């Protein structure tokens, strides 16, 4: 026993300085895991691998001092590791995942979301650099040293710990299989803490090398065969030739039909909900992932779920996508327009718009910047819709009487939801959390901005042929949701679920759908409402007009929301597997024509 202990803890290795460095490194990984699990689940702490991998990571990062004898470099490693761990925690508070491997190469995109990035910082994050400073202070205070640690002892100890981790992975079929086994509803978020961020990135790198196989093709076809068949509407249902989509940044359902501190938050949208030709579903589960806003466009326009790592628009912009845009063009001869205040390079939306079949993109340079909102001073929603209406009136876009697909993407609702005082239309004076006040004021502002476009559309001669969709691209509160719902004034007002609204104005079928649905279901529902029944791609969702549709949806974290009463287990598993199916379809460009696919 003494020999085994001396192998792991040889006196020649564990000098006072070595203990300080190794202890600081291990503490950082432990702190990261604790904070990560506070946001998810502490289940990962029941895995032996978590402790072995933390120890191995600490030993590897100890190499500059243990082998190189570089104390200064070791201090630099501590602070760099702090930045890396904090960045991933910040990312996880919005995206519910670690930073994808490919996203490190597009960090410049963050310049357009600086305020949102800073807003993800928490006071507890300061413990990382403070631990490094504490290590530095302790080292300076105890300058008496017993010399550098033995390189042989360091390599032997690291080798033993590495052997233990490899042996544990071997018992589970190897690293890739061991990590993949965690990709289920119960352990989906455990991979990062158990295998550290570096193991997580390695797993993603291994996934990138995956090749399409006949087995993957068979699984895709089997899943499609089990998908409920598409149910066309009767011929008596009127046809719409135009589709206007308003994608509202971070709009959640709970602000609709809501009066707070004497103010009706969304009077325009509320009025639309009362119209006899409106379809409304308030419980649309957010299903975006690493692509966030651009994932929202994939879900609605292409009926596909986001890929499991990174953003499809950055990794697979040249792929084949079947979309509502293309369906309207093929069956109605519609011309399509994307209107955004962002640059075309943001989320690579200029390129992905072409892949989606959009004819014209009006981006940042197309607008007069006369109303600035957010830290990046982008065009506010009020001016955006005013200028959009002007272009429509002049016939610069969508000449009256011509079939069209119009997609308007708003910006102002980006976190942290700070609206300039001169643009505020209401003031929330009650004792509410400041973040809640800011969100309500912003929702009211965007609601009023939308009204300009709605009022204009109703004056057009082709309004009867126009379907108008208003929805949020994704939820908005992210990690702020729990504290807001637990606050005395926010409880009972702020929803504890990440639901966005799905509003269809001038719908040929009016209804209020109170069951839970997913964002991916919007595509199939719109295909239904537009009666684009001959379009070959029916999406990965199910129309809410289908009475057999289950009343639940699955999040990217594989969490189920809604009711499963009377629902067979295989139906739930089918919905969960849709994420894997969509990931394969996108990664391997499965929808590309004339591809030799397995039967």
UniProtKB/TrEMBL annotation:
Transmembrane domains' residue ranges: 18-36, 48-67, 73-91, 153-175
The reply on keyword Protein biosynthesis is no
Q: What is its main location?
A: membrane
Q: Which Gene3D superfamilies match?
A: Alkaline Phosphatase, subunit A
Q: Which Pfam families match?
A: Sulfatase
Which membrane topology describes this protein?
Answer: Multi-pass membrane protein
This entry carries the following GO cellular component terms, namely:
plasma membrane
Q: What is this protein called?
A: Sulfatase family protein
Which organism encodes this protein? gut metagenome
């Amino acid at each position: 026993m003494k020999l085994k202990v001396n192998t792991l803890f040889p006196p020649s290795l564990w000098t006072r300085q070595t203990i300080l460095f190794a202890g600081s490194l291990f503490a950082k990984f432990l702190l990261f895991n604790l904070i990560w699990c506070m946001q998810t689940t502490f289940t990962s702490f029941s895995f032996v691998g978590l402790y072995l991998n933390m120890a191995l990571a600490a030993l590897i990062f100890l190499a500059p001092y243990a082998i190189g004898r570089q104390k200064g470099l070791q201090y630099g490693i501590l602070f760099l590791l702090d930045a890396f761990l904090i960045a991933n925690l910040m990312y996880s508070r919005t995206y519910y995942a670690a930073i994808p491997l490919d996203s490190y190469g597009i960090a410049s995109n963050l310049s357009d979301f600086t305020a949102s990035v800073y807003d993800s910082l928490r006071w507890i994050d300061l413990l990382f650099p403070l631990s490094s400073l504490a290590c530095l202070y302790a080292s300076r205070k105890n300058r008496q040293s017993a010399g550098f640690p033995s390189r042989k002892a360091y390599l032997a100890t690291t080798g033993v710990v590495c052997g233990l981790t490899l042996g544990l992975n071997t018992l589970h079929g190897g690293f890739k299989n061991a990590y993949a086994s965690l990709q289920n509803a119960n352990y989906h978020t455990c991979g990062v803490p158990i295998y550290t961020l570096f193991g997580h990135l390695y797993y993603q790198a291994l996934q990138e090398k995956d090749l399409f196989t006949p087995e993957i093709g068979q699984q895709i076809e089997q899943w499609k065969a089990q998908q409920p068949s598409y149910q066309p509407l009767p011929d008596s249902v009127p046809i719409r030739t135009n589709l206007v989509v308003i994608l509202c940044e971070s709009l959640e359902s709970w602000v609709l039909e809501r009066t707070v501190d004497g103010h009706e938050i969304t009077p325009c949208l509320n009025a639309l909900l009362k119209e006899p030709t409106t379809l409304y579903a308030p419980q649309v589960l957010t299903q975006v992932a690493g692509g966030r806003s651009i994932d929202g466009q994939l879900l609605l326009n292409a009926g596909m779920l986001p890929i499991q790592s990174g953003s499809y628009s950055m990794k697979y912009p040249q792929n084949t996508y079947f979309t509502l845009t293309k369906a309207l063009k093929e069956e109605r001869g519609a011309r399509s327009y994307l209107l955004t205040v962002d640059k075309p390079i943001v989320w690579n939306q200029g390129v992905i718009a072409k892949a989606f079949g959009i004819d014209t993109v009006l981006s940042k340079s197309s607008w007069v910047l006369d109303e600035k909102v957010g830290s990046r001073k982008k065009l506010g929603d009020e001016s955006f819709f005013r200028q959009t209406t002007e272009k429509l009136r002049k016939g610069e876009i969508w000449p009256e009487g011509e079939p069209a697909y119009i997609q308007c993407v708003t910006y102002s609702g980006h976190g942290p939801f700070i609206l300039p005082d001169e643009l505020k239309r209401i003031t929330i004076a009650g004792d509410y959390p400041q973040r809640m006040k800011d969100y309500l004021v912003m929702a009211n502002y965007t609601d009023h901005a939308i009204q300009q476009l709605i009022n204009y559309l109703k004056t057009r001669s082709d309004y009867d042929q126009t379907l108008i969709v208003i929805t949020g691209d994704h939820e908005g509160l992210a990690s702020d949701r729990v504290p807001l719902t637990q606050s005395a004034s926010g409880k009972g007002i702020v929803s504890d679920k990440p639901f966005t609204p799905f509003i269809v104005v001038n719908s040929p079928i009016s209804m209020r759908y109170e069951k839970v649905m997913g964002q991916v279901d919007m595509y199939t529902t719109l295909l239904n409402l537009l009666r684009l029944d001959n379009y070959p791609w029916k999406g990965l969702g199910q129309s809410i007009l289908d009475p057999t549709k289950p009343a639940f949806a699955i999040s990217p974290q594989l969490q189920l929301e809604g009711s499963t009463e009377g629902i067979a287990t295989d139906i739930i598993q089918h919905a969960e597997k849709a994420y894997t199916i969509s990931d394969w379809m996108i990664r391997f460009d499965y929808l590309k024509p004339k591809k030799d696919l397995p039967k």
